[in-house]
Amino acid sequence: MSKILVNKRILKIAIVVAVEILLGIILLCVHSHAKGRKEVLYSQQAAARFSVDNEAWAQISIFYTEDMGLGSTDINNIRSEVQKKLYDDSLLERPKDSGAASDARTWYDAYSGHTFDDVRKDSTSVHVNVYTVGGDFFLIHNIPLLGGSYLDMNSTDVNQILIDEYVANVLFGSSNAAGMKLWIGDAVYTVTGVVACDDFKAADDAYGEYYSVYVPMEAYSKTRSIGAAKNNNSSEDSKGDDISSGGNSEGTVATCYEMVLPNPIKNYGLNTVAEAADIKFMTDEEKEAARSSLNFGDREIIDNTARFKVSSLYDRMKMQGYESLRTNAIVYPYWENEARFEEAHQIKLMRFCTLLISVMLLILLISAVVIFIHIRKKVIHIFMQKKSGKYGYNMN
After folding, report:
1. Which stretches of the chain drop beneath a pLDDT of 50?
2. How confident is the model at residue 241, as a pLDDT?
3. DSSP state of 234
4. Pick from 49, 50, 55, 56: which is nearest to 98 by CA?
5. For residue 345, what is the enclosing H or E element?
């Protein structure tokens, strides 16, 4: 009889251990899956790519409404303020022992706008997302190239266009389109290269139904100015270089500004860029008031470097209920929508992992209680046997 009881106990212990191991394996698989999904978001990995050895860098993004979009003067003011701050804090030179090239820069920035337009070749046209870009856009957004090269922002020929593989296939029948000519309005653009489109779910959902092209913001502003001048050539208010004279500045102002810079202490990069852009962080009381009034402002600043940390995901999880109530007019570019889609998925995985850990701890707790009760019964049993003299003790 005792042998049967022992076998049952061994079986129970084996089942508990097997369940714990299985849950542990599932937990590791989910963690690995979550990590892998984050790493494919190359637009969120710029700080890691630029970091050398133990150098800490931060990637900061600011998103604006179309009405509050940045012009060239605004961008230069932000750059100047950041440069001054880094100079004052002796951070303009990378450490000599970092392994970086002697001419390596200490900060990088990029800006972009967005609109829709028609791109055509001969009689064939495609309605596309037009991303007007500038600065170090393709250093931060390391989009995979299928052929050709990225836009050369330092070239005197600003009428360049970088197209995605969908546009290339529709207009040219292949990805070998570098050097070809395309038209936007009456302006001729030279194709510098073709980029690949991500095929994971977040990218598919964020990319939208229109294909995408990238052009220098300066070139597209001139294209829009010429078009506006032609459409308003009888108006006194029409000015050749006033791209907003037609009341539509989409694609000609920056609604996304990004910077990668040193982050020697926590939130240094975030605070530096926020101060340069004249963004004031709210207190906890102001955040609560903003939630109540649905006033989220016309700008939003994000620390991309920390957005997938557990603490950041937890804060995002608390705010999810308010996101559908936003009243601002910020339209995020597809790479930010990808990141937000992934944040939501990471939050789901975090909740699932929390549930798994809770179940594992609960099993361990129950097992510990059962073992404690069993040992306690054994101790009491032995004590009672000793007390009754069954072990040869003389109780007198």
Report:
1. 98, 100-102, 234-247, 395-396
2. 41
3. T
4. 55
5. helix 334-387
Query: What's the predicted TM-score (pTM) here?
Result: 0.78
240-285 pLDDT, tens digit per residue, is 344 333 345 788 899 999 999 999 998 899 999 999 999 887 666 6
Say what the pLDDT of residue 306 is.
82
Burial classification of residue 63, based on how many CB atoms lie within 10 Å of its CB (0-12 exposed, 13-18 middle, 19 or more buried): buried
Return the sign of the alpha-carbon dihedral for residues 40, 91, 279, 312: positive
pLDDT tens-digit readout, 371-386: 888 888 888 878 787 7
Q: For 278, which DSSP code?
A: T
Question: Using an 8 Å Cβ cutoff, are 341 and 202 in contact?
Answer: yes
Q: Let me know if 109 is exposed, middle or buried by CB neighbors in 10 A (0-12, 13-18, 19+).
A: buried
The two most distant CA atoms of the chain are separated, in Å, by 124
Size (the chain), residues? 396
Q: How many CB atoms lie within 10 A of CB 392?
A: 6
Best CA proximity match to 130, nearest among 162, 178, 165, 156: 162
| Three-state secondary structure call for residue 105 | coil
CA 190 to chain centre: 30
Written as six digits, the tokens of 378 are 């054994």
Joined tokens for residue 126: 């495609």
Residue at token pair 């926590």:
266
Q: Rounded distance, CA 151 to CA 160, Å?
A: 6
Residue 280, SS3 per DSSP = coil
